[in-house]
Amino acid sequence: MDQGSEDFAAFYERHRDPCFRAVLAAVPDRHQAEELTAEAFARAWAHWRKVRRHPAPAAWVVRTALNTHISWWRRRRREVAWDARAVAEDSGAAAHEGDGDSTAVDLVLRDALRKLPARQREVVVLRVFLDLDTRTTAAALGVAPGTVQAHLHRATKALRAELVDRTEQEEVKR
């Protein structure tokens, strides 16, 4: 193996799982998140000379996966008529399908994350799941560092409220 291949192999091994978890937090379907992450890593390999010089290559992979998902969603939106009731019925079943290895806490947290606006979800994914600093997150998203802090604050507040509300509902059921 040449040096570039070894660098990419080490990068892939180190960042495969965190990148997948970050994409999974933003995409409702586990299988689609796996495909998006694989596609993003394939693109990273194809452009590895450029990507490895990026200040946060793992953020590049996640951003590429999320951009691919947005492109997919835009194409699909034009192709298929949207039935709000069918989507609402399917989302409950699809959100928990194939998650036999997830704990109840993971499912509750993922459901709470999905209720956040897209930009807040992206900030949480990059700051918390990938443990990037504010400046790197801002650069990856193309926003100001203050915007990242504001979105993270709002997201944290919303997640806390959602999780406390969910906990209180569980206690009432008991």
TrEMBL record:
<keyword id="KW-0731">Sigma factor</keyword>
<feature type="domain" description="RNA polymerase sigma-70 region 2">
    <location>
        <begin position="11"/>
        <end position="78"/>
    </location>
</feature>
<dbReference type="InterPro" id="IPR039425">
    <property type="entry name" value="RNA_pol_sigma-70-like"/>
</dbReference>
<dbReference type="InterPro" id="IPR014284">
    <property type="entry name" value="RNA_pol_sigma-70_dom"/>
</dbReference>
<dbReference type="InterPro" id="IPR007627">
    <property type="entry name" value="RNA_pol_sigma70_r2"/>
</dbReference>
<dbReference type="InterPro" id="IPR036388">
    <property type="entry name" value="WH-like_DNA-bd_sf"/>
</dbReference>
<protein>
    <submittedName>
        <fullName>SigE family RNA polymerase sigma factor</fullName>
    </submittedName>
</protein>
<dbReference type="InterPro" id="IPR013325">
    <property type="entry name" value="RNA_pol_sigma_r2"/>
</dbReference>
<dbReference type="Pfam" id="PF08281">
    <property type="entry name" value="Sigma70_r4_2"/>
</dbReference>
<keyword id="KW-0805">Transcription regulation</keyword>
<feature type="domain" description="RNA polymerase sigma factor 70 region 4 type 2">
    <location>
        <begin position="108"/>
        <end position="159"/>
    </location>
</feature>
<dbReference type="InterPro" id="IPR013249">
    <property type="entry name" value="RNA_pol_sigma70_r4_t2"/>
</dbReference>
<dbReference type="InterPro" id="IPR013324">
    <property type="entry name" value="RNA_pol_sigma_r3/r4-like"/>
</dbReference>
<dbReference type="Pfam" id="PF04542">
    <property type="entry name" value="Sigma70_r2"/>
</dbReference>
<comment type="similarity">
    <text>Belongs to the sigma-70 factor family. ECF subfamily.</text>
</comment>
<keyword id="KW-0804">Transcription</keyword>
<keyword id="KW-0238">DNA-binding</keyword>
